[in-house]
């Protein structure tokens, strides 16, 4: 038997891509993990609703790049998910535009680090609103139509901080534990209707959010960038490696494919062994 060299392997034709014909909403997909997941879902054949903050011209370029690499449709929706009506409208507008919303990736999130006695109340409210409540509002709006067609995939981007805690991250850890609980409940409610719901729990992933923390942390602690990466960020991650947005995209595609149909209610760590300790 001759083995075909990797270089000669062609990408699968569009008709056999696992998510052809599906429509996917990815919240917070103008950057980082959400953008990586949106690209992976598009490569797998899904039409994409991109969402998040940013400069319009840059976002238009992102949409064009994703469309250029495949034959899918990409639409940008600027909904602000801090507000319940923004989150619900994102789903409603997708249903009006595409006639369906098969895949919902709840990814948008923010962070604030502070001892609890000084934790600003407005930061607590904002983190709970975006990292937890927004997912409730998108899910409650998308769930009925998914049940009606008997097929749906919901993936919530939680965190290793949905499974374990770190000091000074009270709101983030509370919201991420909350979304793991929401994931289990939705999984049980969707189990007889072809609707799965899972949480992905990344450790540190190389994104602009993390990149921006490195310089600030180096200055605050008077150490080098390399020391921040080794001794602060990756201290809890036994692999001593960041996960990549491409790895998270690949996992999301699998969970959304037919191969993932019996996987529901899980919280899957992608953390280089962090939560195994
Ligand atoms: P990021 O800052 O690169 O991306 C965040 C996205 O959310 C952006 O597209 C931003 O525009 C969007 N967003 C912010 N406020 C919004 C709002 N009000 N309405 C709509 N969209 C809004 O961050 P990231 O690192 O890619 O993080 C994405 C998710 O992954 C978050 O939920 C985060 O908690 C989680 N996560 C990240 C890491 C990591 O190491 N980067 C680890 C674990 C979990």
Defining key terms:
277 residues, alpha/beta, Rossmann fold, 2 domains, seven-stranded parallel beta sheet, 8 helices, 45% helix, binds nicotinamide-adenine-dinucleotide
Biggest sheet record: 7 strands, parallel
Q: How far apart lie the N and C ends?
A: 44 Å
Radius of gyration: 19 Å
Shape annotation: globular
CATH architecture of the largest domain: 3-Layer(aba) Sandwich
CATH first level of the largest domain: Alpha Beta
* Number of helices, where a helix is a run of at least 4 consecutive DSSP H or I residues: 8
CATH topology of the largest domain: Rossmann fold
What structural category characterises the helix and strand content? alpha/beta
Which cofactors or ions or other ligands sit in this model? Answer: nicotinamide-adenine-dinucleotide
Tell me the strand percentage band. 5-15%
**Uncertain ranges:** none
Element order: H for helix, E for strand: EHEHEHEHEHEHHHE
Strand order of the largest sheet: 3-2-1-4-5-6-7
What is the residue-mean pLDDT, rounded to a whole number?
93
Topology:
Blueprint: E1 23-26, H1 32-43, E2 47-51, H2 56-68, E3 74-77, H3 84-98, E4 103-106, H4 121-149, E5 152-157, H5 170-190, E6 195-202, H6 208-221, H7 225-232, H8 245-256, E7 267-270
The structure holds nicotinamide-adenine-dinucleotide (NAD).
Nicotinamide-adenine-dinucleotide is lined by residues 28-34, 51-54, 80-82, 107-110, 130-131, 157, 159, 202, 204-205, 207-210.
